[in-house]
Amino acid sequence: MPTETITSRDNALLRRTRSVRDGKIEELIFVEGLRLCEEALQSGLPIEAAVVSEELARKRKAQPLVTELTKASARLVLVSESLLASVSYTKTPQGIILLAARPAMDEQSFKAKQAKSPLLVVMHGLNNPVNVGAIVRTSEAAGATGVITTTTTSDPFSAKALRGAMGSAFRLPFWSHARFAEVIDWCRQKKIKTICADVAGSELYSNIDWTGGRALIMGPESTGLSADEIASANAVVKIPMKGQVESLNVGVATGILLYEAMRQRNEGKGF
User: Where do the structural domains in the chain lie, given as residue ranges?
Assistant: First the structure.
């Protein structure tokens, strides 16, 4: 596929790129940066367009990716650094942007990918995309089999969340826009034990059984889960803290809990 060169800031493709960046076109995601674009390409996502700076295209390290994108992308365009800055999400443009198809995030495809004893992460009401991205990345690292986000949770495929997830979002199964009650009901039907964390939890997180089907439920950064939501879980655990610390960042807490789950689930097998 021949490449094109765009010189106008008002070009239709660049206007579309800004709309995707701003979350106005839901069927597409905005992927920026050499590493993240490589991850998107390797994941097999259909790519509608690639916007590459002329400077990056001349660099040896980028040439293999640009070559692959000429085959995989429906359209590849070259732009100046200043034009790329006009559509970039970051203050310092990283030289390349992809408009890719949003991965499947529906309930049916998610459930079809779950094995007998899943380890799931449920994000309910998290509104900081940085935390969402970090949790997605940690979920893959700790062996989670899928991520569920409720209707009140920030989009895990927003530009900021994708940067935090560093490619993990392209590999994990997602069920998005789920209602909290239906997630609890489904877990109950499938005998997946639901676990949440709270400072008033009755058990240490390391004292419960994380083997078998488990779903870790993490609530909003500022308020945590409501009393009713906590009551709906099968277990409420606490993470011990010293000093005058009252709570941990939700991403940090998720990591602690997931790595205990991984430790137990891999006991005797090594990591």
Answer: 4-101, 107-265
Pick the CATH number of 107-265 from 3.40.50.2000, 3.40.50.620, 3.10.50.40, 3.40.1280.10: 3.40.1280.10
Contact call for residues 172 and 146 (beta carbons, < 8 A): yes
Structure tokens that stand for 78 in this block? 């070259």
pLDDT > 90: what percent of the chain?
90
Question: Of 46, 174, 206, which Cα lies nearest the Cα of 109?
Answer: 174
> Residue 267 above 90 pLDDT?
no
Closest CA to 65 of 83, 47, 79: 47
Residue type, 63: Q
Furthest CA-CA distance within the chain: 63
Q: Can you name the CATH fold of 4-101? A: 60s Ribosomal Protein L30; Chain: A; (3.30.1330)
pTM: 0.94
Question: pLDDT tens-digit profile of 139-166?
Answer: 999 999 999 999 999 999 999 999 999 9
In this predicted model, what pLDDT tens digit does every residue of 83-123 receive, in sequence order? 999 999 988 888 999 999 999 999 999 999 998 999 999 99
